[in-house]
Amino acid sequence: MKYWIVILALISTVALKAQTLTGRVFDQLSNEPLVGATVGIARTNTGVITNANGRYTLNELEPGRVDLIVSYVGYQPVEINDVWIKTGKVTNQDIYLERSYDLEEVVVSAAKPYIQPGKITITEEQINRFAATYYDPARLITSSPDVAVANDQNNEISVRGLAPSYNVWKLEGVEIVNPNHLSNAGTFLDQPTATGGGVNMLSAQMLDQSEFLYSTFDNRNGNSVGGIFNMNLKKGTDQDRQYTAQASLIGLDFATEGPFRQGGKTTYAANYRYSFTGLLAGMGVDFGGESIGFQDLSFNVSTPLGERSELKVFGVGGLSYNDFTHKSFEESENAKDRKDIYYNNQTGIAGAALKVGRSSGQLDLSIAYSVADNERSQANYDNSDDKFYTNNVLNNRQVVSFNASNVQRISNGQIEVGVMQNFYTYEYQMTTTNILFNPSANYQQWLARPYARLEGQLSSKVSGYLGTSASFTNGDQVVDPRAGVTVGIGKTQSITLSGGMYSQLLNPYNYNFGAAYGELYLSDDPEDYSFMSSYRGTVSHDVSSRDFTVHTEVFYYYFPDVNYSGSDEKETATTGGMSVVMTKDFSNTAYMNVGASIYDSEIDVYESYFNTGYSATVSAGKEWDLTSGSKNRRLSVDLRGMYQGGYRPYNGPIGDPGGRFLLVQRPEDYYQQRDYLRFDLRVVWKRYHENRTTSIALDLQNVANIENFAYQYYDSFTRQWEVQNQLGLIPILAYRVEW
User: Fold this and answer.
1) How far, in Å, CA of 652 to CA of 648, rounded?
2) Residue-level pLDDT at 565
3) Can you tell me the distance from the alpha carbon of 355 to that of 405, in angstroms, rounded to the nearest whole number?
């Protein structure tokens, strides 16, 4: 802790330049720098022209958020919203423009490109602005009505009634293991989940613009019947070295970025984080007998290879643990108090990405190795506080993922061909006393997925794409055709129709369509895991104006052949509904996102566990400039609200911790679906000093302290049914310095 005090004390001695926004403007395909492009601040007269290297520099900017307008002859103009300008720091914002295409020898710059439905943009600025995200990208997207919160302790999300295990994490274009600490947090069976956890290892300070895809995404993205996290790491600035330090009840963060040497082109960005609860645990403080801690380190090194090519080397590593020590028989209040539970996780990701630009195209190559190793040990105690039952579960998953794509410009569009090649290793071992059968699994899978995609302008008002992919694995194969078209209506509206077939290679994490908390079924036969296929289609309508956008989408998914409830029986499943999202950008110091979704997700005659039925969200914020004299100060208040139908109750056997299955009658209200309502509040006091920015933020999750239902279970200690609620009011105080 003393080192952090020294670091913060030295901050005031650092003197840097005034606020500067810089970057380069490129052709999106060839990576060729665009000379003479115009880069300006929206709704002002401030603007510059890019130089011979495609670089622009805007000096003497006011701290805060600005919108950029970028244009170049023969290219689609773009507006980049909410670029975060920080005091004493050089903000780097590279910009990639798409070409307009000659239609009947006339450049139609107003033609609308194809609009991909169901995409949530994830930026560092948004994660730091929205209430109760805790600097976690997965918690940010719960502001969308198309996703539902699985539980307050875990950042797993359900997309339109589908199980969270069908979501996929990708980093720099390649598939990776679950990048979350404490993946068992808050789960009913206290086992690691496939895609969620207590805290994400990808801290906001390390993220470049990323996205979450959950609708009819095109063939470039595959191996998911749920949603896809496409995450990208920040490229460090090539100007001056910059630093961010933060201390909060989440943990201690220190981030740095910049060139390895002054004037050099090879840059780095790195972040280290150590949990506050881990510090307390090291000092002997626990939370009701529970010790929780985590730490992580991430980095990204980028170096140019000539004028148009770039190589990235990146890595992420994380350690976490959650230990619970049993209480004496006299002090025990529930079944958990009669157990020792020790859980730890080790996760590592290492990879590289190469981008090679050409005069009329681009080649992308990326590869990563990732591993997640989980171990959970449990010991039960009898009425005399003697140990009588132990259980140890080892769970290891490894992924080697390679992606190659080549994009070539053609007359009125572009064609892309590529391949994704993945290798999976899964090991599972359970050792239990007093039970002769101890299940285990150890197998390997491979997935090869070549794809092709054609996109372009069909006329001045119509654009679209057509693509297909073929997926191959041990003894199974499937072909996924997809297509989409966008029709412009006037200058502000468009309609998009898209759909196709979507498939995913099953594994023990997502074998069961209705999988809930923990795994309900585990087979030791690799042939049980094949492709799950689905058909989905969407019709969407978009309206955009100067500050507002409204997106309306009608969707329908059909799964002809799924497993359900831990059995080998096959069922059909459907998900259908409609969502509306209205967004006001952060202009005039205020923003607002309001959305609602209604849908029905069924597995044959059964209700899907995650079928909440409806969801409504609102996120809004306002910033006030309280500058007085030489003191530049801002106050911002952000509010987020979520209202949705509750999850369906767990319908499996009621487990007795002694290793037996106890058949007990469920209470009359067991199958009642409970609504979920939560409000979050964030208040930030920010000061822009001459050479640094400081801020104090208070996040209040569930600010109204509403008791939301989590699940109902039979407690073997109390010998009665107990209700477990979601988290109540959680305050998180954070102090942040950037220089």
Assistant:
1) 12
2) 58
3) 10
* SS3 category, 206: helix
| Amino acid at the residue 625 | D
Is pLDDT of 105 > 50? no
Contact 703, 680 (CB under 8 A): yes
C-alpha closest to that of 536 among 552, 558, 554: 558
Residue 137, by phi and psi: left (phi above 0), alpha (psi -120 to 50) or beta? alpha
Q: What is the DSSP string of 555-619?
A: EEEEEEEEE-TTSS-EEEEEEEEEEEEEEEEEETTEEEEEEEEEEEEEETTEEPTT---EEEEEE
The top-scoring range by mean pLDDT among 18-32, 518-532, 563-577, 696-710 is 696-710
Listed residue (96, 98, 64, 68) closest to 81, CA to CA:
68
Q: Enumerate the β-bridge partners of residue 85.
A: 64
CATH 3.30.450.20 for domain 119-738, yes or no, is no
**Would you state the pLDDT for residue 75?**
86
Sequence spans of domains, the chain: 2-99, 119-738
pTM for this predicted structure: 0.88
Half-sphere exposure of 237 (CA within 13 A, CB side): 17
* Cβ atoms of residues 305 and 311 within 8 Å: yes
The pLDDT tens digits for 448-475 are 999 999 998 888 889 999 999 999 998 8
Mean pLDDT of the chain: 85
pLDDT band for position 527 (cuts 50, 70, 90)? low
- The amino acid sitting at 328 is S
Distance (Å) of CA 425 to CA 81, 170, 242, 398, 532 = 41, 17, 39, 5, 19
pLDDT of 1 > 60? The answer is no
The sign of the CA dihedral 333, 336, 342, 348 is: negative
530 in Cβ contact with 563 (< 8 Å): no
- What is the token pair recorded at 520? 């309900």
Locate 258 and state its tokens: 């910049």
Name the CATH topology of 2-99.
Immunoglobulin-like (2.60.40)
Query: What is the Cα–Cα distance from 186 to 152, expressed in whole angstroms?
Result: 8
| Contact yes or no for 479/501 (Cβ under 8 A) | yes
Quick check: 10 and 2 in contact, CB under 8 A?
A: no
What does DSSP say about strands 709-715 and 720-725: parallel, antiparallel, or unpaired?
antiparallel
Note the pLDDT of residue 689. 82
Give the pLDDT score at 564: 67
- State residue 534's pLDDT score: 94
Decide whether 2-99 matches 119-738 in CATH topology.
no
